[in-house]
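Exam prep: given the inputs below (a chain plus pyridoxal-5'-phosphate), describe the expected output before reading on.
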Amino acid sequence: MGIEDIIREDLAPLVPYAPGLRASQVRERTGVETVVKLSSNEHPCGPVPAALAAMRAVLPRLNRYPDGACTALKSKLASRLGVGTENLVVGNGSNEVLRLLAQAVLRPGDEVVFAWPSFVVYPMVTALFGATAVRVPLDEGDVHDLDAMLGAVTERTRIVFLCNPNNPTGTIYRRNAFDRFMRAVPEHVLVVVDEAYFEFVTDPEYPDALQWFDGVRPLAVCRTFSKMYSLAGLRVGYGVAPEQLARAVDKVREPFNVNTVAQIAAYHALDDEAEVRRRRAENQEQKTYLYSCFDRLGISYASSETNFVYVHATRPVEAFQALLAEGVIVRDFGTSPALRVTLGTREDTERTIRAFEAAVARLGRL
Ligand SMILES: Cc1ncc(COP(=O)(O)O)c(C=O)c1O
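Solution:
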């Protein structure tokens, strides 16, 4: 009897989440001094100012446990979103919320439908709770094929994850397609809409999934403070769910899953709407500029509603290395024919463009 006999054998095929390269690793590897990390869809600016001040003020009180019920944050989110506090789940990042929802509903043998490529956490939580992943390819425009996803639903389907906008492609499905999907999806399926990049979207046809939320229908909507609010390092995200599901999540979560600093920062970040508007406009400007350079270089990409762009590459491994040699870290997907580039500051965009120019000069085409 060894340690391998003690560990759950069904964990063997699972692979731990692989984070992108850190700037320090690339500095060491390439000798390039100023490295720009554009591989994790982080916001280039620090936390919104209102959140920073509040975090500093709370530090002397960290001898106390957090508010396990996230009372103040839930109450502010509830009035902001027009839902009840009993409908809110707060997590250590929206990643935890996705996992808790899965933990609360999945039984071994269930099926979980999601688009592919999409957020890597969906197959991970599916496997973790003994369910079977059903991947539905994106359409030719790199967009969720909601009709095909509906077609993949069976009696054993327990969850459908929809990622809108989608990571890694940055694309959205539009209101008509979502309304059609919601009208047709059977009642035994929990629809989980992951809106981690909600605040970046500018397309007027983007469907806010909360408009379908009535507290009864099996629908959960997840968002995060990691992206637009720049609080990725703190870990705080939330979900809106029917009350019974939110209570079930309370049973499986840790008692103090969201730390005090995160709760305070998220609470105050919500007040800074002007900063969110400014950041959204700035992101849009950088994206338009990057597109114009990609067009000039003959680089193909998916139209993005987020703070990252999905670049089609026929030689992704070489392209990734060529960009790295220029000190720009993007996200690769092994041999999948694409790279994902996060948008940053104006300087980051200039740097990205120079790196892509150098990569094209070296490789001919990406
Ligand atoms: C689509 C999507 N959902 C959820 C998350 C998780 O974000 P967090 O756990 O930081 O809230 C991410 C992070 O990259 C994401 O891209």
